[in-house]
UniProtKB/TrEMBL annotation:
Location of the region described as Disordered in the Swiss-Prot/TrEMBL record: 298-337
Domain ABC transporter span(s) in chain numbering: 15-249
InterPro entries in UniProt: AAA+_ATPase, ABC_transporter-like_ATP-bd, ABC_transporter-like_CS, ABC_transporter_ATP-binding, P-loop_NTPase
Originating organism: Promicromonospora kroppenstedtii
Membrane topology: Peripheral membrane protein
Cellular localization per UniProt: Cell membrane
Name of the protein: ABC transporter ATP-binding protein
Major subcellular site: membrane
Domain of life: Bacteria
PANTHER family assigned: ABC TRANSPORTER ATP-BINDING PROTEIN (PTHR42711), ABC TRANSPORTER ATP-BINDING PROTEIN NATA (PTHR42711:SF5)
One example GO MF annotation: ATP binding
Family: Belongs to the ABC transporter superfamily.
Length: 337
């Protein structure tokens, strides 16, 4: 599977990343990452802790300056993005600063006003606050103070803050951490709605493989500073050598046979034709989790030992370049908690 899918017409491309590199001190975290995302596409960025997912997202958001490579986000280099460009992006970070004494409706209404000047004939900004509150499932909490929200409700508010400007591209860093299964499902519906009805491009990071499989049109696995896989969940599963396991019992004995390539139907047919005692027959396809673990192990097996080193103290304290977007500016200047 290639890292790129070939050239695309520029208007259809929301994200175009070529040979992106990031070095903290002497540690190379991104070593030539390339990928693209179309408008309306949902892309999940997976990878073990420390793989560089947040670093990648921060570079694309324009919050962090890259070491090298070409990056276009909605046709603009994020290192030189202006306010009008930022207004077209939505950002949901791992944790927002607290707005504890604000009420949900008040806060969203306040933030929404900043997007009015960026409304265009094609995209009317901001999102209608009442509709947004309903869409993210906070109707019952509309008048509640932020400090009284549960963890999952807070996260929904984070999402509402991220999309209030009706962005064309949304970055979601671990958006469903702390969600219960119901909230998770509602959030998935929201992401589908954004992609399908608003043609919003979504780039999200997650450690939840089930979520990636459910939500993403495409999954990117980052490991060792490069993209080790880029494709749909099915394409990733096909990358594995062991695709399926056939299990059965015969003569009181349990048997497991891994089918390395192709369709396990042939094995099942031969088995049933040749052995009348077969019971408890199961065919288990490799799950995305199996695929992911295999990919990451494979990448680790090829990695030179020195790459795994953690940064020394001198490298650990490089503060990110904070080129604030409207949300961030409001958080530090306008909104008191
Ligand atoms: N400001 C910084 N200065 C030095 N090193 C950093 C800095 N920020 C991140 N790193 C290092 O870069 C690597 C990638 O970090 P990053 O947060 O991008 O990974 P991640 O894939 O998002 O991890 P996680 O899944 O744990 O959120 C880590 O080894 C981290 O220690």
């Amino acid at each position: 599977m290639g890292e790129r899918d070939g050239p695309r017409p520029s208007s259809d491309v929301a994200l175009d990343v070529r040979d992106l590199r990031m070095r903290y001190g002497t540690k190379d975290v991104l070593k030539g990452v390339s990928f693209a995302a179309r408008r309306g596409e949902v892309v999940a960025l997976l990878g073990p802790n420390g793989a560089g997912k947040t670093t990648t997202i921060e570079i694309l958001e324009g919050f962090r300056m890259r070491s090298a490579g070409e990056v276009l986000v909605l046709g603009q280099d994020p290192a030189h993005g202006d306010e009008a460009w930022r207004a077209r992006l939505g950002v949901v970070l791992q944790s927002w600063r607290d707005h504890s004494r604000w009420r949900v409706r008040e806060l969203l209404g306040y933030l929404a006003r900043f997007y009015v000047p960026y409304s265009t004939p094609e995209v009317s900004r901001p999102w209608d606050v009442e509709e947004l509150i309903r869409v993210v499932g906070l109707a019952e909490q509309a008048n509640a103070k932020v400090q009284t929200l549960s963890g999952g409700q807070r996260r929904r508010l984070d999402v509402a803050i991220g999309i209030v400007g009706r962005p064309e591209l949304v970055f979601l860093d671990e958006p469903t951490a702390g969600f219960d299964p119901h909230a998770r499902r509602e959030f998935h519906d929201l992401v589908h709605r954004l992609a399908d009805f608003e043609n919003t491009t979504v780039l999200l990071t997650t450690h939840d493989l089930d979520e990636a499989e459910k939500l993403a049109d495409r999954i990117l696995v980052l490991d060792g500073g490069t993209v080790v896989a880029n494709g749909s969940a099915e394409q990733l599963a096909r990358e594995l050598t062991t695709q399926a396991e056939v299990r059965w019992t015969s003569g009181g004995q349990r048997n497991i046979h891994a089918v390395a390539e192709g369709d396990p139907t042939g094995l099942v047919r031969r088995l049933l034709a040749g052995d009348p005692d077969v019971t408890d027959l199961e065919v288990k396809r490799a799950s995305l989790e199996d695929t992911y673990m295999a990919l990451v192990h494979r990448a680790e097996a090829y990695r030179p030992e020195s790459d795994g080193a953690e940064p020394g103290p001198a490298e650990q304290d490089q503060d990110q370049q904070d080129q604030a977007d409207p949300n961030r500016a409001e958080q530090s200047e306008g909104v008191q908690s």
